[in-house]
Amino acid sequence: MSTAPRPIAAGHDLITMAQGAVAAAEALQSDATALVRDRVSVGGRIVSRAFDREQRAAHGLAWLATYVEAIRQLTAYAERLRGAGGLGEIEELTVRIGLGEYLAQIVGGIPMSQVEMVRLADFGLSAAAVAARVTPDVEATDAAAIDAAGPGADAPQATGGCACRAAVRDDGAAPTALLLAAPLLLLARRRGRSAT
């Protein structure tokens, strides 16, 4: 059995999609930062009472920044692997899963603890503002891992084609479960093994 990385099907450039995910996540973070800054400052100076009042938004902003940095680092990791010739199928699907999951949580809600979520609306971002940043190309980041499996890979239809979009509509566990399971099941099928 060869241990050489097997590249994923052409036409699904991970690096380009990952860079688009970084740009979208950074734009959402910038938008959220500006809105929170407006809520906690007067004349460009932070007002402690306003900051205390908006502590949850500030805490959520820190979580958002952490997720955006994770997307940056996953992208840099994929770029390093590709440059070294080590970006095979398993590595690419792993990066796609990570990017898709982080994007789905940014759009659908980031868990700050077991009982506390922060959503982009908590920062004051409207659905239209989010939709302007999360373009169909960015949504393709998570769906492409499933599409890369080829014929019969119709799992995205269960969530309307995209876990990001489903997270906005549904906010349930199903989009995340699909996102995590589908690439792994398809990888097993492509390798001729039963995933059950």
Features:
mainly alpha, 196 residues, two-stranded antiparallel sheet
Can you tell me about this structure?
By secondary structure, the chain is mainly alpha-helical. Helix content is 64%, strand content 4%. It has 8 helices and 4 strands; from the N terminus they run H-E-E-H-H-H-E-E-H-H-H-H. A hairpin with a 2-residue loop joins strand 1 and strand 2. About 20% of the residues have low confidence.
Question: What would a concise description of this structure say?
Answer:
Helices cover 64% and strands 4% of the residues. It is mainly alpha-helical and 196 residues long.
What is the fold's blueprint, element by element?
Layout: H1 14-40, E1 41-42, E2 45-46, H2 48-53, H3 55-83, H4 89-108, E3 110-111, E4 117-118, H5 127-133, H6 136-147, H7 163-170, H8 174-190
Antiparallel strand pairs: 1-2, 3-4
Order of helices and strands: HEEHHHEEHHHH
Count of DSSP helices?
8
For the sheet with most strands, the description reads:
2 strands, antiparallel
Largest sheet strand order: 1-2
Mean pLDDT, as a whole number?
77
Number of domains: 1
Distance between the termini: 23 Å
Question: How many strands appear in the DSSP assignment?
Answer: 4
